[in-house]
């Protein structure tokens, strides 16, 4: 079968395979080919492969006896991977347990399998989990060349937003002053720093900030990131007028922090504002809120109106990329 493959020297093959597996990029139904001192690893999405890897097109054989959870169950279960933790979202505990057992029997690499037991809740945006397999909810997630240690029981993290985070980070220029107002464990702040920005990162969750500092060390950007635990509104006096780029990834309530964002913005600043809105009016409420907060001091230009993903029936997670230019 013709497929996109990552080509690496054989001595780098296992490390590369693990990296691609952690981001669910390997096509499990196709074999990995060894030829002329190189490994060819079939990938699901060549555009999502980190830039440090070479992607080529070639024919690879289908795996003769793939063992997926669907092979065991007789149906395709829904799950997502976060490092070596597999996450289910099943209302029926018996069905969740059956899927967890099938994952253990399959070729999916998993140390822990959990099922969502609550919605995201509280200021720290964590949720409860039913641990079905294993006992460790801490893991290391890899995406686009970065590593993020985290504990899903203590912090919020969504692997589904990897492509969106990459979209934003691709806009970052070296030398920028970035500010991540709700930083979590650093999935925006750390790749922004790797792109050459100096980043201030704030979060009210102490565990998230501890992991962010650890992750800054892991990714060799500790000197470029200043992490603060606490309400971002308390940092205005220290960072007023500094930011060239602001990330506001707090859907539902980001509008409550727009005055703070405007105070942090420099002479020219790009604001990445995340929102949850009805499908019939996805962007206008956020745009109106930004204009109300900023237009007395800035010219406001909406550069991108972007739908990130479906959030709930008839509701969408969206992002507005907005350029603020200070008025003369």
Automatic annotation (TrEMBL):
Entry-linked InterPro entries:
MeTrfase_TRM5/TYW2, SAM-dependent_MTases_sf, TRM5-TYW2-like_MTfase, TRM5/TYW2-like_N, Trm5a/b_N
Gene3D superfamilies from the xrefs?
A: 3.30.70.2580, Met-10+ protein-like domains, Vaccinia Virus protein VP39
Residue ranges that the Swiss-Prot or TrEMBL entry lists as coiled coil: none
Q: Which domain of life is it from?
A: Archaea
Q: Would I find Lipoprotein among this entry's keywords?
A: no
Q: Which PROSITE patterns match?
A: SAM_MT_TRM5_TYW2
Taken from the UniProt entry, a GO cellular component term is: cytoplasm
Record has Nucleotide-binding as a keyword: no
**GO MF annotations, alphabetized:** tRNA methyltransferase activity
**The SAM-dependent methyltransferase TRM5/TYW2-type domain, residue ranges:** 79-326
Q: Which UniProt keywords apply?
A: Cytoplasm, Methyltransferase, S-adenosyl-L-methionine, Transferase, tRNA processing
Please provide the Gene Ontology terms (biological process) for this protein: tRNA N1-guanine methylation
Protein's UniProt name: Class I SAM-dependent methyltransferase family protein
């Amino acid at each position: 079968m013709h497929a996109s493959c990552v080509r690496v020297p054989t001595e780098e093959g296992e490390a590369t395979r693990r990296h691609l597996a952690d981001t669910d990029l390997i096509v499990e139904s196709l074999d990995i080919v060894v030829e002329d001192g190189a490994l060819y690893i079939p990938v699901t999405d060549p555009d999502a492969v980190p830039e440090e890897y070479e992607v080529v097109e070639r024919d690879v054989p289908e795996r003769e006896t793939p063992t997926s959870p669907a092979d065991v169950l007789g149906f395709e279960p829904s799950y997502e991977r976060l490092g070596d933790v597999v996450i289910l979202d099943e209302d029926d505990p018996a069905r969740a347990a059956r899927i967890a057992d099938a994952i253990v029997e399959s070729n999916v690499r998993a140390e822990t399998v959990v099922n969502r037991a609550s919605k995201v809740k509280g200021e720290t945006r964590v949720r409860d989990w039913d641990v079905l397999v294993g006992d460790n909810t801490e893991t290391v997630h890899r995406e686009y060349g970065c590593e993020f240690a985290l504990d899903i029981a203590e912090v919020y993290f969504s692997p589904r937003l990897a492509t969106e985070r990459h979209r934003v980070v691709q806009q970052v220029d070296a030398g920028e002053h970035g500010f991540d107002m709700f930083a979590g464990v650093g999935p925006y702040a750390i790749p922004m720093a790797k792109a050459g920005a100096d980043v201030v990162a704030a979060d009210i969750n102490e565990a998230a900030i501890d992991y962010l500092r650890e992750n800054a060390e892991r990714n060799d950007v500790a000197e470029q990131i200043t992490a603060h635990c606490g309400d971002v509104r308390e940092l205005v006096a220290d960072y007023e007028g500094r930011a060239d780029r602001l990330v506001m990834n707090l859907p539902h309530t980001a509008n409550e922090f727009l005055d703070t964002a405007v105070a942090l913005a420099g002479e020219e600043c790009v604001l990445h504002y995340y929102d949850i809105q009805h499908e019939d009016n996805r962007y206008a409420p956020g745009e109106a809120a930004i204009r109300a907060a900023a237009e007395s001091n800035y010219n406001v230009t909406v550069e991108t109106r972007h739908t990130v993903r479906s959030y709930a029936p008839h509701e969408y997670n969206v992002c507005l990329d907005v350029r603020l230019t200070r008025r003369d």
